[in-house]
User: What shape does this take?
Amino acid sequence: MVEHEFLAMRPQERAEFIRATGRRAEQEYQALVARLDETLSGFEPFHVLSLVGLVVVVGAMSGSQGIKGIGQAHAELLQALILRRDPASFTGVIGTPQQVAEALDLIGPLADALMMRGWANYEYTGDERAQARAVTETMRMHTWAIRGEFYGEQILRIFLPIVRPLDPHFRSLHGLRASAVYPLLRALARQCADRLEAHLARVRRFLFQPSFEAMAEAYNRAFPHTEPIDVGWARERFGENLAAFKFGLVSHSDLFVADAVSISLDDVAAAAAQAGADVTVEAAVALVDKLAMSLGDLADVPVDRLFLANPVWSRPFVRAEGRWLLPMASTLTSFAPEIIRYLSQDDSDASKALAEARASMLEQTAADILRVALPGAGVWPGVAWTDPSDARRYENDVVLLLDGWLLLVEAKSGRFAESARRGGLERLRAELGKLVVDASIQSARLAAFIGDAAGPVTLQAKGGRRLHVDPARIEGVIRLNVVLEGIGHLTASAPTLRAAGLLPADISLAPTMTIGMLDVVARCLADPTAILHYLSRRAIFEERGDYLADELDLLAFYVAHGFSDTSDRPPGAPLMIYGISNDLDVALSAGTRAASEQPKAVTPFVQRVLDALTRKRPPGWIGAALLLRDLSLEAQDELDRNVRAVVASARTSGHAVAVHRHSTIGASRPYVLVATRPGDVPRAVADEAEARLREHGPYSDEPLLLVHVTLPMRPASIRAFAARPGNLAGALGRSD
Assistant: This one.
């Protein structure tokens, strides 16, 4: 059924259609569970577990998520399904990669059926509840499919400092530092990855050989530790079918994949040495075994629970006859926080220390990221102030001041509970209240306190530092919520959550992103004006934009379009940008992304002006840069043409003034162009600019873009200002 037919149905017809879909999904789910159970019973379990990672890695290397869309989530679920089975239930038959891929290929339909079967009892009870149900299903899908809040290098740079305060507790509990756990696991993952890459390199040696003789010879050289392949036997077995011979050799080579993903005591000893001189082999072995499961350990866990609360996420190793298997090395990075939480959960002191460390270090990490990203800014973590109207004392996490612009950051270290991640509506509402609503109220309260103050105010920061803020010198306020754990694209979609009744309609919400994504935004954009523009316009775009995207998609969209909607979509249709960040995600996952990704939505002319502002930093440079970045690419080209036109006019008359309008996010605003000869700008020119502005139509008293060109026109003679109507003379009289 096409979408418009579904939307054209009456609510009750639509509800019956949804229920029917849910009933079919229930039938499909039961059939798929039985089919997968029968398929797995015919395999040797450790061989299948070894091939799982190979199938996913080969698919990823081919440029897709995996073979037939098989990815990490599918592999982790298959691992859990195998761990549900009693060892005696396997027949011990060695499966081919194709057979393993077919088993994995059942996971996708199984997940789809599981997600849809819950709609079998759907009843339409109003638009808000229907939207809330859609949100819970989206939450469930995110929990099932999306992996990790940090990229690999961020675990070392951002996550490890957060867990370092747990070191004394982990030494007592596990015999090694908490900050040594991930380096140890990372070293083991690297060993498996290196051996798997070496195995694939050996396979490639024979894979493309042109004849039986050449292929057999190459195989024997690549795998000398097995009985040599005899060409005569091969011709007798496969005839002249070279493709069948190749397939047979690949299947035979898979017998050695288990060696690649197996971890021995010697491997653990080598990893322990890399994790730190104080990490003993005994402690490392005990830790790996604590993070491992045996066949049958998940026998009592229902299949449907494995989708949204998979024990493999916190215990990714498998015990296998005196060794351990690591089927999916990437699980260690994706679920590093869950692994630390699992290792802390049995000790109340460690759990408390983890919660405290998450809170204190998140605030400090956010401050550190912004201090590096915005050089020259004053950064004050842990700010406290007293409201004289009620004598109450309030606290804010991070306050940053740069060129009259305040950035107020609230850092919330709480986590979305497992029940919320599984789609529990009331728990999700409660978590959003703590992590998003309360944070937004805190930053809005401070912004209002400063904005309403009759004179300068003093804020007390950590370490006895004081921050003096004069409201008259504040050009703008940017608010941001930073969390440790997000909920996918719902984190970046406040209107969707409002429509579902999960967020209040009367609260001015600040945009919310994870600490990992704040780091990605800062490092990819690199330029201070681009970072502040992204953060300031991100809130407007979220409130006014109808889109489907997570934070990385929004960043990719900003790099390409600067938050200008250039899509040719029909009225009322959402902006579909979900997934456009795939290339960026792949590069960040591989650690190959350069430190900066300059926004493409800037023309060479505007970039030259921005570079001059950033280099010289005249008073008001941030405001001017934000206004310049507001211009779409088309408006930037038009600005370039209009500047050249006003310069041409000034060459004959001595000066020229022009006012034009441009569209920005949700509004149309004017900008003023002035061209004069060298020297002070005559007052009459400023008065003419004010008069032209009044003639141009109604406008607010918010700052507008003012561009002043001194003849002859050169890059160094173009200045940009954020000027308020009525004070253009003051702006033009400034000196950089």
